[in-house]
Specification:
By secondary structure, the chain is mainly alpha-helical. 75% of the residues lie in helices and 0% in strands.
Length: 168
């Protein structure tokens, strides 16, 4: 009889623990649902000092922008995976590589256009004073992007070499 009581207590304990972990896991799944990042939108709205009417128009025009960018990025990632899967192929067709890289460049072109028109929409919503501020924000962002892409960091043990001279 005592053996059964211990087993029943252990069984009840395991059921309670499993229910707790399932509840925690399922609850955390809801937190992982893809959401549109709020940081960039909030930053622009705050920095430009949009009024309520501008915010409403911004939100209405902004619908779908993030999804489009994510879809295009996923497409590019898939095409790059397809391209680099060809590394292990013994016989690589140049036309196949050209086709995949052309598709990648088309997707990147679509992304650039989507970002451009998104920024154009923000500029059209802005007052003249806000347009000047927006122009400054864009220039600063572009400069940061250029600085971040200049060179990869020097690894330990590697020597630093200056860039090759420009030959014209």
């Amino acid at each position: 009889m005592k053996k059964n009581v211990i087993l029943y207590i252990l069984l009840i304990f395991l059921i309670v623990v499993n229910v707790f972990f399932l509840f925690t896991y399922i609850g955390s799944q809801n937190d992982r649902l893809p959401r549109e990042p709020q940081g960039n939108k909030d930053f622009i709205v705050k920095e430009l000092g949009f009024n309520a009417e501008q915010i409403a128009k911004f939100k209405a025009n902004n619908v779908g922008h993030h999804e489009k960018i994510m879809k295009l990025s996923d497409d590019v990632r898939g095409l790059k995976d397809l391209l680099f899967d060809k590394l292990s192929d013994v016989d690589v067709q140049e036309s196949s590589i050209d086709s995949i890289t052309s598709l990648i460049s088309e997707k990147e072109k679509e992304k650039a256009k989507e970002v451009f028109y998104h920024f154009k929409m923000i500029q059209e919503l802005s007052t003249d004073k806000q347009k000047e501020k927006f122009k400054t924000i864009i220039i600063d962002a572009l400069r940061q992007g250029e600085q971040g892409q200049q060179r990869p960091p020097i690894r330990e043990g590697e020597e630093h070499r200056p860039p090759p001279p420009n030959r014209q």
